[in-house]
Design goal:
By secondary structure, the chain is an alpha+beta fold. The chain has 2 domains: 99 residues, no CATH class; 123 residues, Substrate Binding Domain Of DNAk, Chain A, domain 1. It contains 6 helices and 10 strands, in the order E-E-H-H-H-H-E-E-E-E-E-E-E-H-E-H. The strands form 3 sheets. It has a 5-stranded antiparallel sheet with strand order 8-7-6-3-10. The radius of gyration is 26 Å and the shape is elongated. It starts with a strand and ends with a helix. Keywords: ATP-binding, Nucleotide-binding.
Amino acid sequence: MIDVDLENGLRICKVLRRPEFVEVNQKVFEKCESLVEQCAFAARVDVEDISDVILVGGCSNIPKVKSLVLKLCKKDEAYMGMDPLEAVVYSAALEGAVDSGEYDNGNKERDGFTTTRNNQTEALIVVYEGEGKKVDENHILGYFKIMGIPSAPKGIPEISVWMDLDASNVLRVLRVFAGAISPQTHQRVMPFLEVRMSTVDDGHGWFAEALVKMYGSALDLSILQKNMQQ
């Protein structure tokens, strides 16, 4: 039902059936479809990997919007565990808290490494962004050096590195937590300190090239096989 008050006491009332509504707003729906596809592309996510579709906001009650999104994501039903209108309020409050610095819904990821030389006591760790299998296929973000690795044959010390990104996903503020475990006692021999990386921002690749020439493609550390298998 469309009900519009005009000037001079005039009023327009019209019952708009669903096919007419879809036809009138066809360009809007096409724009919605384009935005969903752009979001998936920017996130590097295939629709087959999407586990749930959550529709929020008043427009999620429009049948065409719901069917359009479900079709694009190849799903039969949307997630019904929350009210679409309440979800908008919650997300706005969360975004405000993040912007004000009161809340940081960050993300941590752990990797395990070991040494490549006998009695190696320090290591240079270089952090790259990308999904390429080779170093030169990715973008270098920064680097840091850890010292105090317990002296032992290569491949024995275990070094844990936590990469902690804040909710804004600004990679220049990437923080790294590093420590080492003694191979004899399995106790922590290095404090797990927060390290602020030196960043490389010029994007010309000279730093990565210099590292490879000095240390070789493996650099100082190898990824532990047991962590790769987990």
